[in-house]
Amino acid sequence: MIRLAESPRLVLPTVEVRTSYLVGEQVDCLLEGRPTEWLDAASADFAEFVAARRGVLPRWGVPSTLFWYVSGEYYLGTLVVRHELTADLAEAGGHIGYHVVPPWRGQGHATRMLTAGLAECRRLGLDRVLLTCETDNERSRRAILSNGGVADGRRRGEDRFWIELGSDAAA
Ligand SMILES: CC(C)(COP(=O)(O)OP(=O)(O)OC[C@H]1O[C@@H](n2cnc3c(N)ncnc32)[C@H](O)[C@@H]1OP(=O)(O)O)[C@@H](O)C(=O)NCCC(=O)NCCS
Q1: Which end of the chain has the lower number of beta carbons within 10 A, N or C?
Q2: Which CATH number is associated with domain 9-164?
Q3: Contact present, 136 and 100 (Cβ < 8 Å)
Q4: Where is the N-acetyltransferase domain (predicted)?
């Protein structure tokens, strides 16, 4: 467990975590065998990269908001809220996507980041949200179940879960 001076919180993308973001995302890509070229633009002009990701943006065919999970200078992960579902997203993808970058995994951050993401969904007026995860993604499944996920079948190789957003969703 890495000690943090401040409790992490969800914020809009910010230039304050530049080094930590670039390092964390690079390590994530390398470990997963994904290309890292997209980080070149971020590295060259991080302010522009950040500005292009703030606010409500059309992604996946729906209005979406990107949040970063941040503690001081440290970037821990990303959570995206899709404000609506398309027919595709209703099958697989759902309202929320997230990842925690490797240095911060296994410390409960995804579970708490999702709790904070659910509070953002409630602020956006959603009363229940769909989450999906690959059938062998035990860590994500556990984070979803810890946040009240109720299983609703399997489509396209992903398990689906609904979470009801009661008035007590944590901030
Ligand atoms: C899935 C992911 C977000 C989990 O992040 P994390 O911060 O490590 O998750 P947490 O620490 O909150 O742990 C969640 C659960 O997994 C368990 N877990 C964590 N690390 C584990 C490991 N190495 N092996 C087995 N279980 C593990 C935790 O014990 C916890 O379960 P519990 O609450 O029942 O004890 C992260 O691995 C990730 O970003 N993966 C790649 C992207 C991804 O899969 N995103 C989700 C798409 S649906």
Answers
A1: N
A2: 3.40.630.30
A3: no
A4: 15-170
Q: What is the pLDDT of residues 92-139, one digit of tens each?
A: 999 999 999 999 999 999 999 999 999 999 999 999 999 999 999 999
Ligand 1, closest atom to CA 99?
Answer: 39
Q: What pLDDT shows up at residue 32?
A: 95
**What residue owns the CA closest to ligand 1's atom 34?**
142
Long-range contacts of 58-61 (CB under 8 A, 24+ apart): 60/86, 60/88, 60/89, 60/93, 61/86, 61/88
The answer to whether the CB of 130 is under 6 A from ligand 1 is no
Which residue has the CA at smallest separation from atom 13 of ligand 1?
108
Residues of the chain with pLDDT under 70: 167-171
Residue nearest to atom 9 of ligand 1 (CA): 110
Per the DSSP assignment, residues forming a β-bridge with 161 are 131, 151
Q: pTM score, two decimals?
A: 0.96
Phi, psi of 117 (to 5 degrees): -65, -35
64 ligand 1 Cβ < 6 A: no
**How many beta carbons lie within 10 A of that of residue 24, not counting itself?**
22
Kindly give the distance from the C-alpha atom of residue 101 to the centroid of ligand 1, in angstroms, as a whole number. Answer: 11
